[in-house]
């Protein structure tokens, strides 16, 4: 095992202050020091999530940024560099993927990251690093909302908003895998893509009102929130009495629970947690071919600002990934 020294540095995509995407730039920063149960990982690829974009813009989790320059980025695929103890189940050289708690921990948009042993898992054998990096945060969120919270099962009707996005394209597949009849909202260019992932019906939100075509749903997984076109409030019209709405962009609809209760509908938010055991289950579904990972595009780390702009524009299909290093042989 390599000795841990405080002086080592690394390349990272950083911000010196919150603001526009142009604040993002490459810099040489201190490599994070592994402590207690953490694993030090050499990052090969890392995805960009809306929370990175919101935080960079001064919203999201920006209030918790302890110091600048700050490295953002929640998930990664890479190679184990150091483990906490000799008999640890992971070994240096193992291919892993996972999720860290940014900004309490340094982020993954860098050459190295440290991650709790509870928050990473061996990478799916069937994926390259770019595809693997796209999975952890988005797929754990989809699983947490669809499986752990809504307990979606055979015979249910489930409406998923924004099925074509990072979280959505996993949510559609998980809900279909567990036997639900899945309706999802998207623009027409994504209809074919979503049907191929298992959606039974794709509602074109640009020309149709989803609550008029999708009625008596058991569950709504809302990945838009009430910030756009009153998507949350209108979802109450799509649910049966006693149905459940899970709103993932938390905080976008402060009166949700009261409005839902008045209609006899159950409502909750959901917040993702880095969870190695769930990630291992997702790994199996991916390696079994039951779940696919879609990359919109892969950009070099230096072009992180472009990735932020694309997410801000709101029409990424699947995931955006930053390449930090070439795939190891
Ligand atoms: N609480 C948590 O722990 C947690 C975790 C992860 C994500 N989130 C939040 O959940 C939201 C979704 O995340 P994400 O990563 O999936 O985002 P994303 O990948 O950026 O979502 C992009 C997708 O949204 C679709 N879209 C845009 N406007 C739409 C509309 N009005 N109706 C239906 N679809 C629309 C787009 O499809 P078209 O191109 O077809 O329009 C695009 O494919 C974000 O707000 C994110 O911050 C929260």
TrEMBL record:
UniProt keywords, alphabetically: Oxidoreductase
Broad class of enzyme this protein falls into: oxidoreductase
GO-annotated molecular function: oxidoreductase activity
Keyword Cell cycle: no
EC nos: 1.-.-.-
Pfam families, per the entry: ADH_N, ADH_zinc_N_2
InterPro entries according to UniProt: ADH-like_N, ER, GroES-like_sf, NAD(P)-bd_dom_sf, YIM1/Zinc_Alcohol_DH_Fams
SUPFAM superfamilies associated with the record: GroES-like, NAD(P)-binding Rossmann-fold domains
Every Enoyl reductase (ER) domain range: 19-322
Keyword Electron transport among UniProt keywords: no
Name listed for the protein in its UniProt record: NADP-dependent oxidoreductase
Species this protein is from: Agromyces lapidis
């Amino acid at each position: 095992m390599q000795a841990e020294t405080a002086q080592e540095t690394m390349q990272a995509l950083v911000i010196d202050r919150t603001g526009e995407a142009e604040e993002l730039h490459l810099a040489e920063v201190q490599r994070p020091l592994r402590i207690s149960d953490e694993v030090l990982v050499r990052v090969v690829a890392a995805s960009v999530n809306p929370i990175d974009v919101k935080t960079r813009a001064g919203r999201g989790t920006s209030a918790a940024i302890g110091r600048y320059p700050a490295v953002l980025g929640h998930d990664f695929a890479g190679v184990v560099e150091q483990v906490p103890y000799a008999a640890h189940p992971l070994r240096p050289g193992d291919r892993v993927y996972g999720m860290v708690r940014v900004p309490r921990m340094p982020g993954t948009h860098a050459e190295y990251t440290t991650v709790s042993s509870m928050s990473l898992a061996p990478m799916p054998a069937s994926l390259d690093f770019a595809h693997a990096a796209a999975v952890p945060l988005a797929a754990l969120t989809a699983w947490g909302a669809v499986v752990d919270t809504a307990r979606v099962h055979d015979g249910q009707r489930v409406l998923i908003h924004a099925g074509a996005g990072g979280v959505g394209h996993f949510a559609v597949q998980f809900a279909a895998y567990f036997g639900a009849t899945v309706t999802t909202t998207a623009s027409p260019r994504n209809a074919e893509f979503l049907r191929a992932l298992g959606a039974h019906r794709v509602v074109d939100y640009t020309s149709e009102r989803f609550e008029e075509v999708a009625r008596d749903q058991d569950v709504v997984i809302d990945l838009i929130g009430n910030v756009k076109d009153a998507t949350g409030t209108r979802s109450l019209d799509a649910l049966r009495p006693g149905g459940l709405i899970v709103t993932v962009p938390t905080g976008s609809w402060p009166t949700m629970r009261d409005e839902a209760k008045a209609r006899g509908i159950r409502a909750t938010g959901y917040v993702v947690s880095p969870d190695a055991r769930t990630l291992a289950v997702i790994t199996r579904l991916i390696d079994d071919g039951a779940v696919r990972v879609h990359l919109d595009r892969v950009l070099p780390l230096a072009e992180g600002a472009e990735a932020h702009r694309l997410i801000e524009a709101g029409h990424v299909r699947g995931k955006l990934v930053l390449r930090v290093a070439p795939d190891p042989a």
